[in-house]
Structure formats: structure tokens, C-alpha cells
Design a protein that fits this description.
The chain contains 13 helices and nine strands. By secondary structure, it is an alpha/beta fold. Helix 2 links the parallel strand 1 (31-36) and strand 2 (64-69). Helix 6 runs antiparallel to helix 12 (308-318).
Amino acid sequence: MKRYASILIVLIFILGGCSDAVTSKEKSAEYVLRLGHLQTEVHPYHKGALKFKEEVEKRSEGRIKVDIFPSSQLGNGRDQIEGAQIGSIHFHIGSVAPVTNFAPKFNLLNLPYLFESREHAFRVLDGEIGKEIAADLENRGLINLGYMENGWRHMTNNKKPIKTSIDASNLKLRVQESPPYLSFIKALDSNPVPVPFGELYTALEQKVVDGQENPLAQIYLNKLNEVQKYLTLTSHNYDAAVFIMSKTTFDTLPLDLQKIVKESSQEAIQYERKVAIKDEKKILGELRKSGIQIEENPDLESFREAVKPVYKEFESSLGKDLYLKVESLK
């Protein structure tokens, strides 16, 4: 965890174990649990987290209290997942990419143009495939409660309009630290540069990178459009968001509270997805008015053709059968 290790250790001592009462308001709660994510308080992640808090506190009749820490307050994605491993953070909502360091089968979800629609994605994520790729997490001290939504990812840059895959060449593009994302950008003949999300605005402003790729909510709510000239609706990846819980924490809960956590998480997931879909339409309208130049109808077939080598690269490690299962659910 490096930078945040000392902070997390301090949190453990200050905040104590799950059942410690920190203030008089919390004395009635048997378990005070911390939920972290990287986005702002107006992002769908936060709205989903608030829904989870509401449901779990109501259903447990106050036996569980959830404190929410948005905007990377508890570190970047990997920091928070590692915190969940040791139980200093109890829940994390975030992109799939950092999770691939703990369960490599999640790389499947980072392949470009894997899903043809949201409905296709939901059939995969909410079914046996979603469970299969998350199974290895339990051996790493983590549980995936399900999949929220981060949205369709799109490309922005400061150099040139992008209409075809060829236009996307010769750029320095920030990506998440995930092998399929790195390979995706290389397949476009550009240079992938991993940058923590919390440092992305500054990296774009100072021209450390030419561009980046993210869902519209991240682009707009984090004001990346202020430091980018061009947006292309490439829809190159449907970015599912993992809703991770510390297995150590889950195992300390009595069975009735475990059931409440699982049921509340499913309520929150369905709610967050609806919010994300609604917000995406609104945010695209705001981006149209913001001054950034938008290519709304790029040649997506040229992108799909350009990234075919990425599938070949990961076929052996992920297994062709897994990909064929995804295809069969279209």
C-alpha cells in the first residue's frame, strides 16, 4: 500500500475494530463499517453507497452503521482493496481494473468491445460467469457482493479529433493499470501511461499525457473536459464496478447480519445502475454545452478490427471457453 499504509494503520488504531463505538451516536451500533470509493459525492457510486447505507441500517435496525468515504479519501483503488484484505476498510466500490491484481479472471471484463449492450453485460455479470470470475477473491480475503455500473468508457485527448482507430495513433493516453487496457492502447498504436485517477486532472493539465479514457460521469464530474479538447464516444468498454467486502469482516458478522448485507447490496446495485443510466444521458447533454468537441458517431468497426490482437493475447490465460460463454449470452 506504500503511501497509505501508515494512514490505514492509524485508522485502525483510531477507529478501532468493527464493533468499537467512536461517538455517542454510534454506541447503539454493534458494527461500524467503512465504505470507500474514488468518486465525488454526486457520482452514481456515491448514490449507490448511500442506498446501501440506508438499506443495511434500516434492515439491521441500527445494529450496523455504515460510514462512507468518497473522493479517494481512503487511498486509490488498489489501496482500498488491500485495506479490505486486512479489514481496515470494510467495503469498496470501484473499477474492475485494480481487482485483476487479486483475481486475474477479472481481466475478461477489461477486454475491449466484449459486450454489445448493457443487457448483455447484465446477463454475464449477474449470472454464473460473474460468480466464476470473482471466485478467486475469497482466497485473497475478499468477497464481491455484485456489480454496480461505472458505464461505457470513451476517449478524450488534446491533440486531434478521433473518428477512426487510425486517428487514435501516436498519443500518450492515461489508462488504468490493467493488462487488457495497456494492450488496447498499444493495439491503437499509441502509448499507454498508467496514472492514478486522483492525479489524472493534473497530468492532463500539465500535458504529462495527451488524453485518457473514462465513462462520461468521471469525465464531467471530475471536470476533465476543462483540460481536454476532444471527446470520442468510442464505447470501447462497459466498465462494471465491483462492490467488494472484506471477508474477515463478513465472517465476523452473525448469520442474520450477513444476510442483511447481501440483500442490501443487491438493492443498492439495482438502484445504482438505474441512477447511472439516467445520469449518463444528462451528463452527455452537459458535455455538449461545455465546449469540448464531441465525435458522437465514430467508426466503431475500425476500432473493433484494430483490437482483435488483444483477444489473441489473452486467450490462453483466460481460456477460450470463458469468452465463448460470454458470446453465447448475446
